[in-house]
Fold:
Amino acid sequence: MVIDYALFGDVVCFDTTYRINNVNRPCAPIIGVNHHKETVVFGVALLYDETTTSFEWLFTTFLEVMKGKKPITIFTDQDAAMAKAIAKVFPETYHRICTWHLFQNALKHLGHTFKGSNKFGAEFKSCMHDFEYEEDFIHSWNSLLEKHKLQDNKWCLDTFQERRKWAMVYGRHTFSAGIRSTQLCESFNSRMKCYVKPRFNVLEFFTRFEKLLDDVRYQELESNYEMSQLKPALKMNVPILRNARDIYTSKIFDLFQQEYEKSLGIVVKTCIESPPLYEYKSCSKSS
Structure:
């Protein structure tokens, strides 16, 4: 886990949804993605409760084990105790709120608005994902509140205060490994249920969890072998793609090749020269 975290620990997902034993104690896996975009496990803890004190202990202990390396970005759900602990232990880490959990909270707190308008959900998601510039995002958010008479809604006001944690307009310049939510944790929790049962004691839990880790790591070995046997197809035989194919894993190369294709649809409209700076304004061919 220490080796995996040193290689892939720039972005982590943390979740306490899964419960174990008869008193419903939270199980807290800390996970991320590897160079195949597959799940990699950095650690797991069994917590007594979900207080700020418990989270501070966990993050501090994790930091000690991982030789002081802090993640660049951490994804969690919208939990106040968790947020306080992250701010204290990982002050330089960019804390992102899972957009899926945020939307579920919106359904819970603004259910009457969702029922009254079949467009509200799409408009709310647009605020989360669609804007390139802060002023456009703020204008859209204010218009959303005004349109649906939510200007004084406490949940909306509190959520807006945390906008830097969930609005993509603030997260575009921070490395996130393509992750937007803690659904990676949700998927891992579902997988964990096949190995670990809530009735297990601590010894049984870690024995079975170790088996889960073995299977996760074996999946990475299989992906490494497949990559060594077969190279992904080139959509265009150009030097940059040939070079990237030799360097990247198949999954990452596919993502790179998609972005390269998109770049071919960009047209430079104007160029303002003011040496040593050159400002280009561009658009897609379809614009």
